Here is the input.
Amino acid sequence: MINIAVIWGLIILFIMQPGIAHDGAEAGAKLFVHALLPYLLPYIILTQWLLKLPSTTKEIPKWRRFLKAYILGSFGGFPVGAVTVSEMVKNEELSRKQGSILLAACHAPGPMFVIGFVGTELFGDVGSGYKLLAAIHIVNVLFFLIALRFLPTDSEIASPISKPLQKKNGMPFLEAIKESSTVIILVATTVIFFSSLGMVLTSVLSNAFTVDLGIVKTMVLSIFEMTSGVQSATDHFYGQAFFPFLIAAILSMNGLSIHMQVVVIAKTANISMAPYVFGRIWSILLVPLVFYAIY
Here is the structure.
C-alpha cells in the first residue's frame, strides 16, 4: 500500500512539474552520454571479456582471487565492481559470502573521474585528486580486512570451486558485449530517472519551504544522483574551505542511482546486500576524515 502511494505521489509530481521533469531527464541523459558512457562502456566490455575467458588453472589461491576482484572492480568506476564480483560468483571463483564482502569493498569511482575531473577541474590540483582516490581505497581496503576477519573458516564455507566451472563453447568477446549492453542500459535508466526525480523534488522543496536553494539542490541531488550532486555543489559552494570535503562526502554517499544499479546486478548472483549497506555507512563516515588527514 505504501509503495502504491509513493508511486502515485511521484506520478502526480511529474505531471505537475512537466518542464522541470523534462529538464532533469535531459540533464541526466547529457550526463550519461558525455561523462559516463565514454569511460564506462569500454572498461565494462574488457572486464566482462576477461572474466568470460576459460580458466586454465584448477586451483587459484584465495588472495589472488580477492586481488583480481579488487583490481578489476575498484578501478573501473561504478558499477564495475558489482559486475566483476557478480560474474566471479557466477563462475564460482568466489563464494557468495566472499562476494558479499567484496561487493562492498570493490566499490569506488574510477581514477579518471577522481583525478581528472574532481582533482584537476574541481580542486584545481591533480595531487588533491590522488589524495582523495587514496582515501577512498584506504577506507575500502580497511573495511574488507575487518569484514574478512568475521568470515567463517574455509571448512565452514563452500570452497570456491575445486573444479572450474565448465563454460559453454562460444565467443567470449560477443558474450561480453551482449551482457555489457544490459549494464549500460541499466546505468542510463537509473541516471536519467533519478536526475529527473531529484530536480522535481528540489523544485517542490524550495517552493514549499524558505530555505537556501543551493543547499537544498545539492542535498537532494546528492541523495539521488552523485554526479549531479557534485555539479550542484560546485555551482553553489566552489571556493569555500569545506568544498573539497563536501565533494568527498558526496562521492562516498554515491546516490540512489548507483545503489540501485548495484542491487540489480548483485541480485543476479544472489549476493547478500547487508555488507554493502554497512560498507556505504563506513565510507560516508571515514572517507572525508581520511581525506582531511592527508589533504
Remarks:
- The CA atoms of residues 57 and 164 lie 8 Å apart.
